[in-house]
């Protein structure tokens, strides 16, 4: 572990964590601004999906971009683009322009995360992978968790609030400047073409679905959960904090869950997290207005849902090496973007037509799909072992 936690690693995860703060603030602030302007949840869902569309569009080009301009420079460009696109939202209320700016933000975020996650997985070995990936995920989520809290403080500053969020991203640049070498091995990226996605995809259905579920969970928690809570009578100042409770559960428990996965086996812990989320989500409509019941439930849901994603990244590193790992990381990124793009559109439209509880229904269906895929993978592995 000590050999892995070098200066370059710490610089990268801290830079990504600062990006998490900006992201955690921008999504709920966008939803709040749209609601204040009189727009419904369907419009909020469309703007959230626009960001995911940008991420999905850039996925096929991430490796080539990193190889062409260098991984560290690609991350720096991503941070600057995030800052500019977010700050520009301060100077217009045109929904089309907002959509374009969210697309640019999505592309920048996907470039940054794909490079960072592939590099972290390459650093770890199987005996420490759960903890190493958990450190990376925890640092991002810790700062993302503070985003909605920040929104609750700056929401009234309508003349500068988006500019402030944009400036947050720039805080990552000094840390990035301390990285001594490119964080992504060039040889692996160069030979990625020899491991086609059609060969890699059948080996990771649960990982793809698990990533997609958490992408949806994370996006909806930041964008539509406050509106869901307000529809159930929760005050707006409290509603914007609920996502922070979920993210706190994610942050606090990822390293312990990563340690548990290293000790008990990734497959067992991964499936257990899916069952916990599947059992807990249907309780949310009954406890959302009671903070003594709702907040502990949100903490547990955040921890379990976050571990589904973290352990999906761990599994990529366990199953794939070299070029195949790059391909797997790209597929994980594509799954994240696709779920973030389509999920808010579906959830926002269903909430508009069927009521706010449709939000819970969408999440239940998605986590059930992950559990089914994980059970299928386990049975297939047992059959191969016989």
UniProtKB/TrEMBL annotation:
Alphabetically ordered keywords of this record: Membrane, Transmembrane, Transmembrane helix
A GO-annotated cellular component: plasma membrane
Tree of life domain: Bacteria
Family matches, as PROSITE patterns: MFS (PS50850)
Transmembrane segments: 43-62, 74-91, 97-120, 132-154, 160-179, 206-228, 234-257, 269-289, 295-316, 323-346, 358-376
Pfam families cross-referenced by the UniProt entry: MFS_1
A GO molecular function held by the record: transmembrane transporter activity
Domain Major facilitator superfamily (MFS) profile: 8-381
Listed InterPro entries: MFS, MFS_dom, MFS_trans_sf, MFS_YcaD-like
Identification of the protein by name: MFS transporter permease
């Amino acid at each position: 572990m000590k050999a892995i936690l070098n200066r370059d690693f710490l610089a990268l995860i801290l830079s990504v964590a600062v990006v998490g703060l900006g992201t955690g603030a921008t999504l709920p602030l966008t939803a709040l601004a749209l609601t204040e302007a009189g727009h419904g949840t369907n419009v909020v869902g469309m703007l959230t999906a626009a960001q995911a569309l940008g991420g999905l569009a850039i996925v096929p080009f991430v490796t080539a971009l990193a190889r062409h301009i260098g991984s560290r420079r690609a991350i720096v460009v991503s941070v600057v683009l995030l800052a500019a696109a977010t700050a520009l939202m301060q100077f217009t209320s045109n929904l089309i322009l907002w959509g374009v700016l969210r697309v640019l933000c999505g592309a920048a975020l996907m470039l940054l995360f794909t490079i960072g996650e592939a590099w972290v997985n390459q650093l770890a070995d199987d005996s420490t992978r759960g903890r190493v990936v958990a450190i990376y995920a925890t640092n991002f989520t810790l700062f993302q968790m503070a985003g909605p809290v920040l929104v609750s403080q700056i929401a009234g500053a309508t003349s500068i609030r988006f500019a402030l969020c944009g400036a947050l991203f720039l805080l990552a640049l000094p840390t990035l400047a301390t990285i001594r070498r490119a964080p992504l091995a060039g040889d692996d990226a160069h030979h990625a073409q020899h491991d086609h996605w059609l060969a890699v995809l059948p080996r990771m259905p649960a990982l793809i679905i698990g990533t997609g579920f958490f992408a949806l969970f994370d996006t909806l928690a930041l964008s539509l959960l406050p509106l869901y809570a307000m529809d159930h009578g929760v005050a707006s100042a409290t509603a914007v904090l609920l996502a922070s409770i979920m993210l706190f559960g994610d942050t606090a428990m990822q390293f312990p869950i990563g340690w548990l996965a290293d000790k008990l086996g990734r497959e067992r812990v991964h499936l257990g997290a899916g069952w916990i989320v599947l059992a807990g989500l249907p309780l949310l409509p009954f406890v959302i207005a009671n903070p003594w019941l709702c907040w502990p439930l949100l903490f547990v849901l955040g921890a379990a849902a976050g571990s589904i994603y973290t352990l999906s990244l761990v599994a990529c590193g366990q199953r794939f090496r070299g070029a195949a790992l790059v391909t797997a990381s790209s597929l994980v990124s594509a799954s994240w973007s696709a779920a973030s793009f389509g999920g808010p559109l579906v959830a926002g439209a269903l909430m508009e037509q069927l009521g706010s509880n449709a939000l819970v229904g969408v999440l239940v269906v998605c986590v059930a799909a992950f559990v089914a895929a994980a059970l299928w993978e386990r049975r297939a592995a047992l059959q191969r072992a016989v």
